[in-house]
Design brief:
By secondary structure, the protein is an all-alpha fold. About 50% of the residues lie in helices and about 0% in strands. It has two domains: about 35 residues; about 100 residues, Orthogonal Bundle (Cytochrome Bc1 Complex, Chain D, domain 2). The radius of gyration is 24 Å and the shape is elongated. The protein starts with a helix and ends with a helix.
Length: about 140
């Protein structure tokens, strides 16, 4: 009887030890993710700022400051074609797309394919990593 209790106790201690190791690994993983600074889960903010150089001739990040294209200030969660006093194509107005990481990624891949009839002359960003980096930068810079 004592032998069975000791064996069960050892088994329980091993299970507790394994559980603690797993919890520790989860905590370390979360800390790394939270402390990663300028990088989002998929993109690098600093690299995204460099990618934005392709956009800044036409787009501003300042609220209300339009150029050839509309201001991108607060773009996440906004509906396409809705920046006041900006003349959008009818295609952009009709699209009624809510800008998110997913919709921006699709649009930035090939704007004219995503919204046929858009006035945006930019051909798109072929590289997924460039789009991820740009989106990470925009999330930070357009708040």
């Amino acid at each position: 009887m004592i032998t069975i209790c000791v064996m069960r106790s050892r088994k329980l201690n091993i299970q507790q030890e394994n559980l603690m190791k797993t919890i520790g690994a989860i905590i370390v993983s979360l800390a790394v993710i939270l402390l990663s600074g300028g990088a989002s889960a998929a993109g690098d903010v600093k690299k995204g700022k460099r990618v934005f150089n392709k956009c800044k001739a036409c787009h501003s990040l300042a609220a209300g400051k339009k150029r050839i294209g509309p201001s991108l200030h607060g773009v996440f969660g906004k509906t396409s074609g809705m920046v006041p006093k900006f003349r959008y194509s009818s295609a952009m107005k009709k699209a009624k797309i809510v800008w998110s990481e997913k919709t921006l990624d699709a649009y930035l891949t090939k704007p004219k394919k995503f919204i046929p009839g858009t006035k945006m002359a930019f051909r798109g960003l072929k590289k997924q990593q460039d789009r991820d980096n740009l989106i990470a930068y925009l999330k930070e810079a357009t708040k």
